[in-house]
Amino acid sequence: ESVMLTAREKLLVMETARSVRPPGNLYIAGTGGQSTAETLELTKKAAEIGADAALVITPSYYRGQMTPAALIRHYQVTADESPIPVLLYNMPANTGIDLDIETVVILARHPNIIGLKDSSGNVTKIGAIRQQTGPAFQVLAGSGGFLLPALSVGAIGGVLALANIAPHVCIAIRRCYLEGKNTEARELQLRMIPVNTAVTSAWGVPALKAAMDFLGMYGGPVRLPLVPITEDIRKQLNAILVTSGLKM
Q: How open is the CA angle 121-124-126, to the nearest 5 degrees?
């Protein structure tokens, strides 16, 4: 619910995450704002807190003006001034903007832009970007629903909502893929697709938080204008978690 946090709350989240990060783990902070100035301010503060890299979603309020030229300028200025490496974040379902291949390839040439989180689900596009950028530019799947297909065309991993409730399965999919255990990887991926759909495109953040509660973690309440899932959806979600093997 990053877009629903105040500026101070965003910093508190970053500070809290940094305080509990296990030694040796990379820490990526989401710092994208609607303006380049806002993005830079938050990125610099994230760096001071201890973030290793900044994940910067596309500005989207003036969607019609967010041309490739405008987006290239936004990311290049951010990367020029950022004290930490920058990752592009493509989330067309929420922003209405889909970074095209040519724009990503141009931005990948910047020495401080090191990768892309792509949540579009366009695996062909992910493969094309991987093919047209150098090995130093790392592509990450943005959804657990297509983690394995993304890995198969050159993604190195993922930043996944699904990992909030099934991190062990997400890790196992990647490990099985790297070890050549394709049948096992495919079975795990197929088992997680209904779960991933439930907590993303179907019922969203309210369902993801409810699933965390169901599994003995803490999801907690949602922030308005989001509202909790209904009792009927809670029953459906619980059944999906049981069928997937995540909940006994």
A: 65
Half-sphere exposure of 219 (CA within 13 A, CB side): 21
For residues 57, 59, 63, 65, the Cα torsion angle rounded to the nearest 10 degrees is -130
C-beta of residue 71 within 8 angstroms of C-beta of residue 99: yes
Q: In a 10 Å sphere around its CB, with 0-12 CB exposed, 13-18 middle and 19+ buried, how is residue 65 labelled?
A: exposed
Per-residue pLDDT tens over the stretch 150-188: 999 999 999 999 999 999 999 999 999 999 999 999 999
pLDDT tens digits, residue range 67-93?
999 999 999 999 999 999 999 999 999
DSSP code per residue over 71-132: HHHHHHHHHHH-SS-EEEEE-HHHHS----HHHHHHHHTSTTEEEEEE-S--HHHHHHHHHH
How many other CB atoms are there within 10 angstroms of residue 67's CB atom?
11
| CA–CA dist 223, 205 (Å, integer) | 10
Pull the structure tokens for residue 68: 């490739």
Per DSSP, the residues of 187-204 read HHHHHHHHHHHIIIIITH
Q: 117 an active-site residue? A: yes
Phi-psi bin for 222: left (phi > 0), alpha (psi -120 to 50), beta? beta
Q: Annotated catalytic residue: which of 10, 117, 125, 209?
A: 117
Q: Residue 143 CB: number of other CB atoms within 10 A?
A: 23
pLDDT digit string, tens, across residues 108-167: 999 999 999 999 999 999 999 999 998 899 999 999 999 999 999 999 999 999 999 999
Cβ atoms of 136 and 114 within 8 Å: the answer is yes
Distance CA(109)–CA(33), nearest Å, equals 22
